[in-house]
Amino acid sequence: MLSEPKRRTPPAPQTSTSVTLEKVLGITAPGNRALACDARTGLLAYPAGVSLCFRKAITTLAFSPDGKYIVTGESGHMPAVRVWEVLERQQVAELQEHKYGIACVSFSPNGKYIVSVGYQHDMMVNVWNWKKNIVVAANKVSSKVTAVSFSDDSSYFVTAGNRHVKFWYLDHAKTSKVNATVPLLGRSGLLGELRNNFFSDVACGRGRQASSTFCITSSGLLCEFNDRRLLDKWVELRVSPSATCLSVTDELIFCGCSDGTVRAFSPVNLHFLCTLPRPHCLGADIASMVDASQLFSCRSEARYPDTVAVTYDPTNRWLSCVYNDHSVYVWDVRDLRDPRRAGKLYSALYHSSCVWSLEVRGGGEVRLPSGSFLSCSSDNTIRLWSIDGVNVINRNILSHDLQKVIYVDENITSLLDTESTGESGSEGQQTDQSRVGIRTLRVSPDGQHLASGDRMGVLRIHDLDSMEEIMNVQAHDSEILCLEFSKPDTGLQLLATASRDRLIHVLDAGRDYSLVQTLDEHSSSITAVRFAGQMISCGADKSVYFRTAQQLDNGLQFTRTHHVVRKTTLYDMDVEPTRKYAAVGCQDRSIRIFNISNGKQKKLYKGSQGEDGTLIKVQIDPSGLYIATSCSDKNISIFDFYSGECVATMFGHSEIVTGLKFSSDCRHLITVSGDSCIFVWRLSPELTIRMRQRLADLRPSRSTQNSQNAPQQKVLNLR
């Protein structure tokens, strides 16, 4: 029977108060339709993951004119338009009239209506009297629509997209009828010779220019339509290759373009005013940027991320920009007569594609500051973060949270999210087409080395002091799925690499990572390998192998002691701190607990509260009291390791959670996902206290535990 050591601890906390989302490191705004600013307060809003209440990815959002509400649209089947109260953070209205995802939403300036436009396959444009919860007007649209804007007097709105600019008129006499949906009257803009352009954004004029409508084409034209829907005039933005977004006020037009360019124009006559400063150049050494002047002193041949979203705050005269490397900047544009005086007020940099794995600071890893962790991504970077922004190595001017970026190659294209430009890619999905990126990370027990494995099978070793690469070798024929260092008390310095090519390589870290042995028992992908007195591995062949090490004449050799087969694929494994038990996350959503000494299964319980999906990752906290799991239905759960009782369930990522770790101080759970975001969850004080008490109980008994495990530890205690 699997039993928990006796100890005095407080009672288990309740699920509802166990975990709260403390910080989000990431942004999933696909373009201007998902960036909004409250004109009254300057509050900025953008999506990062899903609606925390309804588990649908947020694709678009907009503030109400008074700033009290925010409307969101979702992707997926039967998506909803939702209205939220900003201060209370509560949903106050919901409309579910679309079937295949919502491309853009907007409040009318009088606050009475919301317009929502579906994806191209949805084909619907709905006007919603949201306080009465009825659709007052609707029609179909066959083109791909990427933007919508209401006129200043709320009498019409304009949609823009692929070869599409259309004016939709509201008949207030008809739309005021209760419980009646009338056909929405639409008239196409007269595009003339520009009819074959992709119109990436649209904004109706304000103030003196209220009768005008402004559009931007991906080919780099700023266009103005008059009150007769006629394309009256246009100017070239002189950008290459594309223009993506615009923000219009009664005094200014800002156009976001490729290569970090933002140009300002006058809405009165489309006269050019200035070009704003660009963000950091791609591949910049973030840690070394400690002075503002460095932001404007990049090399002439440097390349910059494309601007994909801009929104202007007229109260403070700030311009917020999102770039396609998933960075966010806020510029002070109070004096556009001299663009050199446009200063950076705020910036943040995030991963631009799937985050695969993370490593937290452990007890022996003194080279990482307290409260820091590492992450790796398909954007071909390894990043060092600070949880609280307090304990940092060197403060830089670009991010409070990001301390260092390691670029594993010189290909800067992988740093860009090509799906965030409105013209390309599938709607509402973040695809990972190329086979590049860092797949897994592991820090050596002494904190000197960082091992990483990529999706092409390359193993890299970085020195954590200098962050310099000291080894690069093609270790496998396919992506490396797991790395594991042996424990210090074994007397060995080994690194095991496991891959989709069905092989495990055992390397001697003390001898320049020379090959010790290759193990080939698995018949399919190896999903996890762990050292715990023995070497344990599991994989897609539904097998768990237990091996012990012996010192033979020709060197160290691992030999199989137990082989366990189950009827389900085994996706991940972790070992609790006493090294008596290994927990395996399985395709059938179960957690199977194995006794490491004899290879027998001791316990089984559900690792997800849902009825769908498979367990992707399992992670035991430093004390061994709790186990966190991620499921392919995007749920995250925390269970009591010994009883199997669910302590907490969380969700918020819009893609599967690819990695999760407890912080070494037992205060946080950090999760990473295919949506490019990192979530930092704050554990309740009750959970933290229980874990810390257990850690205190374990420390004096570590030596005793090791002697009790002598039969299985003895073989590995060789130098």
TrEMBL record:
GO biological process: negative regulation of canonical NF-kappaB signal transduction; positive regulation of JNK cascade
Region ranges (Disordered): 418-437, 699-719
Residue ranges constituting the MABP1/WDR62 first WD40 domain according to the UniProt record: 34-349
Domain MABP1/WDR62 second WD40 as annotated: residue spans: 362-683
Transmembrane stretches, start-end: none
Positions annotated as WD repeat: 650-691
Polar residues: bias regions: 418-434, 701-719
Domain of life: Eukaryota
Stored InterPro entries: MABP1, Quinoprotein_ADH-like_sf, WD40/YVTN_repeat-like_dom_sf, WD40_MABP1-WDR62_1st, WD40_MABP1-WDR62_2nd, WD40_repeat_dom_sf, WD40_rpt
Keyword Repeat: yes
Protein name: Mitogen-activated protein kinase binding protein 1
Organism: Sparus aurata
